[in-house]
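Write out the 3D structure for:
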Amino acid sequence: MSLPIDVRAYAGYRANERPICFYVDENLITIEEVELRWFNPDGEYFRVRSVKGKRYLLRCSIEGEWTLRSGYDGAELLARPSVEVVTVDPGLIREAERRTAGCERCRGEDADHLFDSILADVTGKHGSFEFVMSEPAQCPNCHGELDEKALVKARRHERWWPHPLSVRSANTFPSDGGRDREAEPHQQGLRTSLQDLYR
């Protein structure tokens, strides 16, 4: 017996190198250690120990889909309520598209996330949820159609990765001709001196 789960994994030289934490329903289970890992033809298996001392068996399939297996302490999690179907409305689909940089068609091996993991982020629902979009999504790069299980390349979210142009540095001239009311006095002096050199 197994349960599809949403896993956050460390990506080193390859995607999904090792799991860091996973969700079951709304519960976050943080992994303290990967005790054992092995490969099978159907995917890669991880025996992990949580920070609470529980042991779980996780599998990452060849397609990159994670499941919780019934071994060790996983049986008590599998006894939880069944998977809930969540309908994703057009507004949230557009937000998921904005968080997508490309798909398997246009980004090839760089597409290392399932689109439903992005849907989980935009809906705030992690764990035993199955997402059904109210209309097809579209890759913002090649404009191909995306379904819930499509492989995509996730875009770095602005909340975690500020755009470099949003951080104003001391040697950046503002658009009002060098005046920056919020800048420190020595920064204003530096800007004025630099502008004088180029007049």
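DSSP finds five helices and 14 strands in the chain.
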